[in-house]
Amino acid sequence: MIYRLSSDLYFPAVETASPEGILAYGGDLSPERLLLAYRSGIFPWFEDDQPILWWSPAQRMVLFLDELVVSKSMRNVINRGVFRVTFNTQFRSVITHCQQIVRDGQSGTWITHEMLEAYCKLHEMGIAKSVEVWQDDLLVGGLYGVDLGHIFCGESMFSKVPNASKMAFIALAGQLKNDNYKLLDCQVYNEHLESLGCREIDRGEFMRILTTPTNRAS
User: What order of strands is seen across the sheet that includes strand 138-147?
Assistant: First the structure.
């Protein structure tokens, strides 16, 4: 049975999630609950006509930073200086583009207005961060996520021109590696992420990495 959250700041053990990965429903998107969720290996994912759904899938898609794959064609794009990358300068614009971008096979978005405002609050607290990709001074790609200090939990990315979201992902992975992060959490499988070197690990391994103390230098 899927747990119904109350006003208390609490989540059940992730091992109690359904086979699909749904752990609980209800609650709110307060900064305190969101931060507790991410620190507990849980993330929200729902649509406008649904209650807030909280997920902890049995298989977690992640990038171990040494395993990043940059294709030859993408290396050429980087070497030619097609894009300029900035970090954490246009968070609201990035999440708004992620909300509004048209995606193949999707009729709507899971980034509701409530979700957008909640993550903007996290950004104001220095917890949610963004990567911006520019071409001729136009914002053409980017991504955002939640920074736990040793793991970056990617949420969504967008691309208005070919390779822009890949550029954001590659730039983020490089920065995280330089800062000795343990991994980039990508949540659920898709082929695009797999092509960049991401792979699935089981929930138990992810939780061990998430909860192991780190001496990462800030």
Answer: 84-87, 128-135, 138-147, 151-159, 183-187, 59-63, 199-202
In this model, does residue 48 exceed pLDDT 80?
no
What distance in Å separates the CA atoms of residue 10 and residue 26, rounded to the nearest whole number? 11
CA 153 to chain centre: 4
> Do 21 and 54 contact (CB within 8 A), yes or no?
no
Q: Cα dihedral angle (57, 70, 218, 157), rounded to 10 degrees?
A: -50
**For residue 166, what are its two tokens?**
């890949």
**CA-based nearest residue to 162, from 99, 76, 90:** 76
| Each residue's pLDDT tens digit, 124-144 | 999 999 999 999 999 999 999
Burial class (CB in 10 A: 0-12, 13-18, 19+), 121: middle
Number of residues written out for the chain = 218
Give the number of other Cβ atoms within 10 Å of residue 29's Cβ. 18
Is 116:95 a contact under the CB 8 Å cutoff? yes
3-state secondary structure of 3: strand
**Buried/exposed 84-98: b ≥16 CB within 10 Å, e otherwise:** ebeeeebbeebbebb
Check: CB of residue 37 under 8 Å from CB of residue 101.
Answer: no
Residue 196 and residue 188: Cα distance in Å, rounded? 14
Q: Over range 9-28, report the average pLDDT.
A: 97
